[in-house]
Amino acid sequence: xxxxxxxxxxxxxxxxxxxxxxxxxxxxxxxxxxxxxxxxxxxxxxxxxxxxxxxxxxxxxxxxxxxxxxxxxxxxxxxxxxxxxxxxxxxxxxxxxxxxxxxxxxxxxxxxxxxxxxxxxxxxxxxxxxxxxxxxxxxxxxxxxxxxxxxxxxxxxxxxxxxxxxxxxxxxxxxxxxxxxxxxxxxxxxxxxxxxxxxxxxxxxxxxxxxxxxxxxxxxxxxxxxxxxxxxxxxxxxxxxxxxxxxxxxxxxxxxxxxxxxxxxxxxxxxxxxxxxxxxxxxxxxxxxxxxxxxxxxxxxxxxxxxxxxxxxxxxxxxxxxxxxxxxxxxxxxxxxxxxxxxxxxxx
Length: 348
Fold this sequence. Notes:
- With 348 residues, the chain is of the alpha/beta class.
- Helix content is 44%, strand content 11%.
- The model is unreliable at 9-15, 19-31 and 70-74 (pLDDT under 50).
């Protein structure tokens, strides 16, 4: 609970809170900065950030956490100002799932509040926001219903989920109702790590290792279980996007292939080599260097990568330029990563 409270307070401090679905744009500030128009090969494109955070204070209050700042309207304009400066036309909003430990009654109400608020934001600013529904994955059947309601009733574009549910891997059969519904709806599932609590002792100390190492490690574990436990074979139509460049998996997936040689019995039921599943998964572009992005494209394909900033956390301020300036990418690659793939997946 302590880590959860601190995380939510950090979000509020960063100006990520939207109170009562109201986003007040300060006209003077908005007019002072012209929105950056991004072009590739002389053609303007719409850029879409797949990885941007918000929280809804009314929902977090149900967990006993106060997150609303004193003056939300002061911080809200900074989001549009920053988007305009960076060349980000749209953000796909997601709420990190910190509610997997609450009761079904609380979870039901929280999810309703969050999804209604997200829908209101997207309706008010349709040229800047789309959003992922929240779901209570600790109750898989309920999560499937919430996803369907989020997509069909609230016009949300998929779901945002964590990398595990109270220590349970999402490849476990009990989560099949959720995966089945996601495949049926054809919507995108955006996975964001929550950390690995059982490793907190090992990752304690300097360097922010619970985040710097723990988050991408959890993503790697999440994706590896979906591959090796057969979830991606069972539901081949799933569209899953993993945050933070897919963790370590795209950089070291060949070891997974070789693991099938060393431990053949573990791979007998797979329909293809582990590395081949990378071509049916999606990833954000948060790998920080041109070489890192070039390598991701080589391993996964440019069609599987979308820009992600982790806004409002200060992980990336040059996301668009990162793509534009990476050597070896074709104009088609750049268009896909900057917004083309996201527009297709999110039905924009």
